[in-house]
Amino acid sequence: MTALLLLYGEMFIRFFLVGLFAIGGGLATLPFLVDMGEVTGWFTQLDISNMVAISESTPGPLGINMATYIGFQISSNYGALAGILGAIIAPLGVITPSVIIIIIVSKILNRFKDSKYVQYAFYGLRAASFGLIVSALLSVAKIAFIGTESGFSLESINWLCLVLSVIIFTVTMKFKKVHPILLIVFAAVMGIIFKM
Description:
Blueprint: H1 2-21, H2 30-40, H3 45-57, H4 62-75, H5 80-112, H6 116-145, H7 159-174, H8 180-194
Helix pairs in contact: 1-5, 3-4, 4-5, 7-8
């Protein structure tokens, strides 16, 4: 019981820090989750790739979906009820910093919204968000197209995944009226058929 409570505490703190520093949405959480997986051993980069695929295919914000999945997986070793509680604690850790910051900012932003320093801070946050999202994109692309093994060679490229990505990108650019859900379902079916 004590080990489970310590696990919940560590999980909440780690996800709180992710929520505090991952500015820019769900993809911005990926570099922090990669680091969390390496430090704790709770999950691998391949697990993160699978979580992204599942989280992008289900309703809700990516970061919350991933936190829910991780929280359940980590704590379900102690039983189904423990897993459900973990699936609640981890997302609470992610959203708590946002709630605190929104409350603080809403109280003081009206006083300083015209300040050039506040405007500069927002420009800096945009750049930080962009950097985190590009880092996440490169991590996911490496796992999807090359795999988790170290080193790069033509044999290590997942050509089916690359071709599927090009097809989906082309359809998205050429046929603007194709609903994204159809593309997600198509990609999921291809992934199941070809075991990608």
